[in-house]
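Final report, section 2: Outcomes. Of the targets proposed, Unplaced genomic scaffold K443scaffold_371, whole genome shotgun sequence is the one most frequently requested by collaborating groups, and we therefore present its record in full.
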Amino acid sequence: MLKRLRRNKNHALPPLPSDVLDPRLPQELIERVIEYCAWNERTLRACSLVSRNWVTPSRRYLFGIIRLHTHASVAAFLVLVASSPHNIISFVRKLDIMEFDSASPPKAWMRHLFHRLPYFPYLECVAVQMVPNSYHWKWGSHLSKDIRMAFTDLFVGITKLELSAMFSSFYELCELICSFPLLRSLVLNGANWQSDSNSDSILTIPALRDLSLGSTSSKQVLITWILTGSTKEAFLGTRSARFTSIRQTEAPAVATYLHAIGPFLEDLELEFSGLEAFYIVEADNPKLKVPHPAFVTLIDLAHNSNLRRLHLSNLLLGESREIGILFYGYPPARWVVAMLSQVSSPLEELQLTVVIEKHSKRVKSEDITTIANALARPRFAKLRLVWWDFVQSSVSGDSYWEMNVEWEKYEIRRAFGVVEWGGLLRISESR
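The predicted structure is given below as tokens.
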């Protein structure tokens, strides 16, 4: 056919369809492709060079999060802003500021940072992390009032704040949080203070929609402030709560918060603090730890009648050795089922994060079956997703062993198959 066409020079080829002449993809499809590559910087840079339609979506992810950790990173970012022919500042949604050396007063780049940065019109989140945060570095002591005012003035319009730093007092932390009137999401993980308070006045906390409390000096003090320093309308506006590293002494405060917020909470994550969540030392033999999950089940979910998503994290299994001592794990199925029995809401998603130690025993099939049977009850008729997430622990300090949970995956599929689970079952593992 082609040979005949070459011989007949006067023969005209049929016109191509209009959709072939226009090779442009729908913009929705382009954005989905770029969203799939969101965490691959090299691929995003390549996508930004495809065509004009790919530039803006690519930059949205390339410049969505700006990390400023050293003097060099600050200088490079300022040069990029000054030399860029396009306004990349409008793409920045989160600013991640980290100081690695907090054993001494902050370096010059940190002291002058907030006076040098431009205004970010669409900035949503600021994360401040001092690693390691210690008593040697304090927010108010090592940053002058002028620098702190520059910080709050520059980011006054943010809606999310993540803090991991040391403060001289709890009031100083509260004062910083209340400097952002539009704040809707607060994450405190590694936020500590030296003294509980140096002022009798109670600052009014902004109306939060999402609250996350991790390792802090005291969850009791924070929760008391949230309950007393919030208007009723603002407090009841919280829809998502995350409590991690819950120590035994903090469980009653978490229970008080959940009881107070009642049916307004929709999303909850609970992570109990390491071995302390599942073991207690016997008085006559401090080296022997026996199961004692009473304080875990102290947290009652019966009042959260509108809960949609529940995440139970840091479930330790089997036995493990630490500093030459053998710890026997408490089967998590017992207290997981006990907590599920308190649920009175139409739960839609349940996530169980299981921590696997190097010397952990296999998850018992009867424990998996117990949980599967509990979820097959009529009260969980609206449950559409059960997610088992296995996480390799590095507590032992040995990072060269590989976690193998193929047996657990098989048992989970078998147990949920027996009860004729009709929802989506997801099993993942991360190292």
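Confidence is low (pLDDT under 50) at residues 275-292, 318-330.
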